[in-house]
Amino acid sequence: MKKFVEKLHFITHDIHQHSHIEQANIACSAGAKWIQYRCLTKNDDELLKDINTIADICDDWGATLIVTDHIHLNGKADIQGFHIEDMDADFVKLREQLGEAITIGGSSNTLGGLIRLAEEGADYAGFGPFYTTTTKPNNAPLLGVEGYARAMQALKAKSIDLPVLAVGGISLSDIDPLMATGIFGIAASAAINQAEDMSAAYSAFYDNIM
């Protein structure tokens, strides 16, 4: 089942400036159609309180709500999908557990990982890191524009149709060269939610990607 995947994924994080709910609300108000709720610091009751509120915001604005990990919460809130950060996760088993209707995305930092995600039925992949980021520490080698170009060419040669989103320290000026590599889209967090004007930052990212 082919799923809708937006070209700009906005990822919420634990930051001082805005709560996860505020981040989602500002992004949706600016036109976001894809919110990835990434919170690894709260218990289930706190998570569900956030998720239910963000789900209502997403419903109001017609946005897709994806939750990072926490697949045990499936069915307990209006969650459209999950992003799995464990690069060793078995996506065949995840699909059996979550069902066909749920969108499932995965993370990878290698071409081999992208190929495996495609073969195991992931709906999209976050591929990185592009550049140094403090939002989600990653010791893998930085890909740079050249790394994305090589990976996209390799996937095309194998006729693999997997929406790949660049992630990791991406700034506004990086979007054009990254999109020129053939990637599907961009996943962003700090460049938007830590901007002086978060709404304007989201709009600028969106306009450059679309």
H/I helix tally:
8
The gyration radius over C-alpha positions equals 16 Å
Largest sheet: 8 strands, parallel, barrel
- The residue-averaged pLDDT reads 96
- Secondary-structure element string: EHEHEEHEHEHEHEHH
Helix and strand arrangement:
Blueprint: E1 8-12, H1 20-29, E2 34-37, H2 44-61, E3 64-68, E4 81-84, H3 91-98, E5 103-108, H4 111-119, E6 124-127, H5 144-157, E7 164-167, H6 175-179, E8 185-188, H7 190-193, H8 198-209
Parallel strand pairs: 1-2, 1-8, 2-3, 3-4, 4-5, 5-6, 6-7, 7-8
Helix pairs in contact: 1-2
What's the short version?
The protein has 210 residues and is an alpha/beta fold. The protein has helices at 20-29, 44-61, 91-98, 111-119, 144-157, 175-179, 190-193, 198-209; strands at residues 8-12, 34-37, 64-68, 81-84, 103-108, 124-127, 164-167, 185-188.
Protein model, in words:
With 210 residues, the protein is an alpha/beta fold. The protein has helices at 20-29, 44-61, 91-98, 111-119, 144-157, 175-179, 190-193, 198-209; strands at residues 8-12, 34-37, 64-68, 81-84, 103-108, 124-127, 164-167, 185-188. It is built from eight helices and eight strands; from the N terminus they run βαβαββαβαβαβαβαα. The chain has an eight-stranded parallel β-barrel, surrounded by five helices. α6 links the parallel β7 (164-167) and β8. α1 runs parallel beside α2 (44-61). The longest helix has 18 residues, at 44-61. It is globular, with a radius of gyration of 16 Å. 43% of the residues are buried.
